[in-house]
Amino acid sequence: MNFYGDGDDVDAVKLSEECFKIKITDTEAEQTKSVFDLLKMIWSKIPDVAKQGEFQQLVVWNQLCQTLRSINGFSGAIDLETTFFAEHAKAR
């Protein structure tokens, strides 16, 4: 997934904030290197009352993937190791 070098990482953060009604600080955004990092951050910011087990976490995951795909029309697989920056990507 090509989330690096063209501002898609910034779009991912902004769209995630809008979608999940959360605020991500610049420092937090700078520490986000992969989709898993973003998922963990989103999950930590959702109020406890809205967290209802694994099913809700899957709903958040599916919504995050849909949000990320909306950025550049990517239709391939997104996994927890998908990165936002080329220097953090594992050789595939």
What does this structure look like?
With 92 residues, the protein is an all-alpha fold. It has one domain (8-88). Helix content is 52%, strand content 0%. The chain is built from four helices and no strands. It has helices at 8-20, 26-30, 35-45, 54-72. It is globular and about 35 Å long.
Primary descriptors:
mainly alpha, globular
Low-confidence segments, given as residue ranges, are: none
Radius of gyration: 13 Å
Mean pLDDT: 78
Number of domains: 1
Distance between the termini: 12 Å
DSSP E strands, number: 0
The number of helical segments is: 4
| Overall morphology | globular
DSSP helix fraction: 40-55%
What fraction of residues sit in β-strands? under 5%
Structural class: mainly alpha
Order of helices and strands: HHHH
How is the secondary structure organized here?
Blueprint: H1 8-20, H2 26-30, H3 35-45, H4 54-72
Helix pairs in contact: 1-4
Give a brief rundown of this model.
With 92 residues, this protein is mostly helical.
